[in-house]
Amino acid sequence: MAAFSSLTDRLSNAFKNLRSKGKLSEADIDGTIREIRRALLDADVALDVVRSFTARIRERALGIEVSEALNPAQQVVKIVNEELTDVLGRGVDRPLNFAKNPPTIIMLAGLQGAGKTTLAGKLGYWLKESGHTPILVAADLQRPNAVTQLQVVGERAGVPVYAPEKGVQSDGGEAVAAPGETTGDPVKVARDGVALAKQKLYDVVIIDTAGRLGVDEVLMKQARDIRDAVQPNEILFVIDAMIGQDAVKTAKAFDEGVDFTGVVLSKLDGDARGGAALSVASVTGKPILFASTGEGLKDFEVFHPDRMASRILD
Ligand code: GDP
């Protein structure tokens, strides 16, 4: 995974020195912990997360017993793998929460440029491929191009889009037009989109919402208003894995602002340091449900903390 390639190299180096050891001394362990700490900090993992992570590893590594199955270096790698899985998932690895009575409502939130609109297409495509009948709702009325962009994404994914303008195109023929007149009210758009889904039996509604360049209260209130109006089953916070140390601040602000239910890490294909993304689950206690790994429709995967930890340590 490009976003973690440097971290992977650094961690693998940190373990290298342990390989020749038959038994680990406290100094060996501390040396390795120091390297792990530096690698994580250089990858932009938040300081608090690094501290507690390395403290747990140190404690467990000091307790390593001689084992027939694994040498000390392998045991340290195993401990790091387990702790990394915990940091990435807080013990939670859950699927998307579907409504008992459709439609399932998924709202996307995050900063502008985080990858929400792109994700709406990927998620729609993935759901369609797994037998669902999703519809995308364009409730980002902030950016002039956002509605059109979602329509393009929907067309590419073969998923209908509900938008507040007339002439909105749909799933190859059937016109899914707004029932009322054009409106600039994102809450109304979201509500109307859900009503349309109920009427036409779309079973998943994906609502794209506005993002700003920085966290702001007007945006947050708007997102809350949409949330309160449609009561989503999932509020997915989309975060650009490349935004560095700002990730923690942004995630906390959205957590307080809209109390999201899950995280989507986007742009994990980028080659900047993606470590901040590793802090997000830990800092918010919310599970990462998906990863976005490119601009294409299929550059998308269900996130499993244990698999991601193994890939980072690969
Ligand atoms: P939004 O403002 O949150 O809706 O963000 P967009 O979906 O418009 O994405 C912003 C930019 O990031 C666009 O140029 C996308 O093509 C790009 N993008 C989105 N997701 C990914 C990803 O996973 N990887 C890469 N490399 N680019 C992405």
TrEMBL record:
Annotated localization: Cytoplasm
Gene: ffh
Annotated protein name in UniProt: Signal recognition particle protein
Role of this protein: Involved in targeting and insertion of nascent membrane proteins into the cytoplasmic membrane. Binds to the hydrophobic signal sequence of the ribosome-nascent chain (RNC) as it emerges from the ribosomes. The SRP-RNC complex is then targeted to the cytoplasmic membrane where it interacts with the SRP receptor FtsY.
Claim: tRNA-binding is one of the keywords in the record: no
Superkingdom, natural source: Bacteria
Residues involved in GTP binding: 110-117, 208-212, 266-269
Domain remark in the UniProt entry: Composed of three domains: the N-terminal N domain, which is responsible for interactions with the ribosome, the central G domain, which binds GTP, and the C-terminal M domain, which binds the RNA and the signal sequence of the RNC.
Record's GO cellular component terms: signal recognition particle
Species of the source: Bifidobacterium avesanii
GO process terms (BP): SRP-dependent cotranslational protein targeting to membrane
